[in-house]
Request: fold
Amino acid sequence: MKISKEIQEFLLEDALERFLRYVKIWTTSDIKSASFPSTKNQLELGKILSNELIDLGLEDNIHDKFGYVYANLAPSEGFENVKPIGFIAHLDTSQAVSGKDVKPVIHKNYDGSNILFSQNKEISLTIAESPQLEEYIGLDIITSQGDTLLGADNKAGVAEIMAACVVWKKFPELKHGPITVCFTPDEEIGRGTRKIKKKLLPEICYTLDGSEMGQLEIECFDAWGATIKLKGLNVHPGYAKNLMLNAIHIASRFLSELPETESPEHTEEREGFYHLMNLEGNEEEATATLIIRDFELKNNQNRMSYLENLKKLYELRYPGLKIELNFLHQYQNMLIFLEKEQRAIDLAKKAIELAGLEVKIHSIRGGTDGTKLSEKGIPTPNIFAGGMLFHSRKEYIPTLALQKASEVIINLAELWTN
Ligand SMILES: [Zn+2]
Reply:
């Protein structure tokens, strides 16, 4: 069923009103915090949302002490036996830029010229930086005032899910099975699923945390951490000939053997890399910390064997030097898990097309809540929320994206009833 003009207008109005309201609530997470959620303000937004879900008549409402919000929407009549699905978005915003006192600005009928910011004259938003803006000419664009991020990541997702709930309640002719809504804290600091209650979630979920309109993300990096520890031998430098094994200096030679072309700054799209994050030590001992990323496990395994071979080579080259290599699998490419639930992907594509958008399959050069959930046995593709230039002062979203993402949610729920 095609969504009527009336419902489309309603979705836009409702999602927009919510978005403008939610972004004003300061929910920056804090990686240095040991508490859960990492910042108290996230509880404030969670409370508001939980109350709104109660007012809307959703059931089993929970706002737990960790900041997670859960609620269930009963199926429309006759669809009680449909497979339940869930929609997830995160409450926090990135620490990269301040998220305090966000004042959203709507630039009506964007004409393609540079967008200026009233609170930051140094920056402007241009098509050169975000080519998608070209497609958004004629639309209304929301930005911050340039002194904060906007918070479309991920309050757009939150607003879109909420707007869909409102519409399901208001227009009972829309078909859907049982729906679970879940809002998570601390996604930006990698803790979004740490305290999630898996038993409260359906077997299939979708995060609304992607970027560009039309985007569908079904794969992420296969991610490894590596530590390389070199144990050398220190001797007085004046008497060190043929004796000293300078661990930190040898470490720098070892690390220079990593191909420069396989680094984050030289790779894009589906290319993988080694990324040196830290090197510390002295003559006696040196430790390097790296991450290794690729979409193919095999390519990462090749990178790890390259490091193993270098270790052997360096231990031969410097007799007495000991090198310890440790690898930790951080997360897997979620495509492995999603492929087992092809229907979840196919219906998401269809739902995006039904909203009149071109499906843009995208590979996440990182991980998301959905990555971890997929690993935990809940296949969770990531659908666009519409925000662009995440984690920056130039973050923006076309208002149409708020409507379109809500439409995708409604379409998707209906497609699962067939
Ligand atoms: Zn996000």
